[in-house]
Design a protein that fits this description.
single chain, alpha/beta, 5-stranded parallel sheet, two-stranded antiparallel ribbon, 10 helices
Length: 188
């Protein structure tokens, strides 16, 4: 995918990309061009990525583009160790993209036998993500609460295909949460 991203990058002028989405399979599966037709978007998600994978590919995924906004959702694949790299990613973004606005998405609610038991850790980690957003002057968006079904104690089943990955309905919820934030940041 990195070679594909490098080739795509060459087709954009600096700052032409309004929103670059960075992340793992949740981002990779998000058809951002369809959900945000009003913006010039790129999807820089790679399934299976952990925080350290994203950190290693920031040059191609973000810096070469100099996007106006970066939206980042990362950490589900290494939740227990995600903060070994998470803050350094934020520092790198701030240093290398000083004009870019950064939106940090919370980890999503999850469900089922495999993902469901991770909800408590995800919720705990989301507090840290929110605090880091405040520390760096970035925007935080809480997806966990929007996707969570209190009566079940996990993600609303309509929003997930397997407890961890999202359905079209799940992506619609994310889009509804993110759209007003992007409108505010981009002024349209």
């Amino acid at each position: 995918k990195l070679e594909q991203y490098r080739q795509e990058n060459a087709t954009f002028a600096p700052r032409e990309v309004e929103v670059a989405f960075l992340g793992d399979s949740l981002t990779d599966g998000y058809d951002v061009a369809a959900y945000y037709p009003q913006y010039v978007t790129v999807n820089r998600g790679i399934g299976g990525d952990k925080t350290y994978d994203l950190k290693a590919r920031l040059q191609i995924s973000a810096y070469e583009l100099q996007p106006q906004v970066v939206v980042m959702l990362i950490g589900a694949n290494n939740m227990d160790a995600m903060f070994e790299d998470y803050e350094s990613i934020l520092q790198d973004l701030q240093k290398n993209l000083p004009e870019t606005k950064v939106v940090l998405l919370s980890l999503t609610a999850m469900g089922g036998e495999h993902w469901g038991p991770k909800n408590q850790l995800a919720a705990y980690n989301n507090v840290t993500i929110k605090l880091l957003a405040q520390k760096y002057g970035f925007t935080f968006v809480d997806l966990f609460s929007a996707l969570y079904d209190v009566s079940l104690g996990e993600i609303n089943p309509a929003y997930t295909v397997d407890g961890g990955h999202l359905t079209a309905e799940g992506y619609e919820v994310i889009t509804a949460e993110l759209t007003p934030v992007l409108q505010e940041l981009l002024g349209k």
